[in-house]
Amino acid sequence: MPKKIELTLAGTTASAVLHENAAPKTVQRLWDALPIEETLRHVRWSGSAGYIMAAAQRDPSFPLENRVSFYQPGAMHLKPEHGEVAISYGPAQARESTGIGWATHFATLEGDASAFLDAVARTQHEGKKQLTIKRKES
Amino acid sequence: MARQIRIEVDGVSAVAELCEDLSPKTAEAFWQTLPIETTLMPAKWSGNACFFEPGGEHLKQLSTNEAPVASIYPGYLVTRPGGTEALIAYGASEYRWATGTDYTTRVARVKDRNSELLKVLARTHDEGDKKIKISRA
């Protein structure tokens, strides 16, 4: 059984499957840091996504795995150099002020996550919200 | 002396000078569009900036940029051709969209680069949308 996480934001909940085979080091590091409670804000450079800064995931020397630039809706990505975990709800890309970057795609939301992704999208107009990520027990 | 406008957000205002030397047609069209009272929203592709839809008929008539720039310096107000949107930067910013970087026209610049207004604009990152009023000063 793959490891899963549960995300809670503004009264909505979603489940995500961790990609242990494609991003084993990233998944293990995140798993060991759970639960995580952080402030989710809307990205400023990357398009349709929200992000948290997870201090325990910040390590500029940590390798990228399952490397991507474009974010698919419902996917979760880590930029280890910043400890930035992004959750995309529409077109998005690993960008910053200096241009286009890369990120590790380490998890994907499963099932009907539309209410959760709507809450992520609303951070652009409503402002920051509190996000909780914890292990999902099977 | 350049004409001036007053930008007000969350009870904090600043005076900006129109960039009549750089973009005379756009500055004039923006001036004719005033007053503007609308929603200011945080940008999601362009970095440390907010955007709004200026509305009106005057900016719609302009189909090209004047003295085009992609970088938006803090305190600058820029528009897109056709007046589809206007942005104000409060920090490092570049006009971008999903497909990449594009050009804008400088319309006005806040006179005081340390203006409290820029701090209010920065708060949209945490607080979301705000109301903006722009009038002739």
Strand content of chain B: 35-45%
At the first level of CATH, the class of chain A is Mainly Beta
- By CATH, the architecture of chain B is named Beta Barrel
**How are the strands of the largest sheet of chain B arranged?**
1-2-9-5-6-4-3-10
Q: Spans of chain B with pLDDT under 50 lasting ≥5 residues?
A: none
Which secondary-structure class do the elements of chain A indicate? alpha+beta
The quaternary structure here is: heterodimer
For the record, the count of structural domains of chain A works out to 1
Distance between the termini of chain A: 8 Å
Let me know the largest β-sheet of chain A. Answer: 8 strands, antiparallel, barrel
What is the total number of structural domains of chain B? 1
* Helix-strand category of chain B: alpha+beta
So what's the overall shape of chain A?
A: globular
Average pLDDT across residues of chain A?
97
Rg of chain A computed from alpha carbons, rounded to a whole number of angstroms:
13 Å
CATH architecture group name of chain A: Beta Barrel
Widest β-sheet, arrangement of strands of chain A? 1-2-11-7-8-4-3-12
**SSE pattern of chain A, N- to C-terminal:** EEHEEEEEEEEEHE
Largest protein-protein interface? A-B, 18 and 18 residues
Q: What would you note in describing this structure?
A:
The complex is a heterodimer of chains A (138) and B (137). Chain A has 138 residues and is of the alpha+beta class. Chain A has helices spanning 24-33, 114-126; strands spanning 4-9, 12-18, 36-42, 47-53, 67-68, 70-71, 75-79, 84-93, 95-96, 99-100, 103-110, 129-135. In chain A, strands 1-2-11-7-8-4-3-12 form an eight-stranded antiparallel beta barrel. Chain A has a two-stranded antiparallel sheet with strand order 9-10. The N and C termini of chain A lie close together (8 Å). Chain B has a single domain, classed as Cyclophilin. Chain B is 15% helix and 40% strand. Chain B contains three helices and ten strands; from the N terminus they run ββαβββββββααβ. Chain B has helices at 24-33, 116-122, 124-127; strands at residues 4-9, 12-18, 36-42, 47-52, 76-79, 86-93, 96-97, 100-101, 105-110, 130-136. At the A-B interface, helix 2 of A face helix 3 of B.
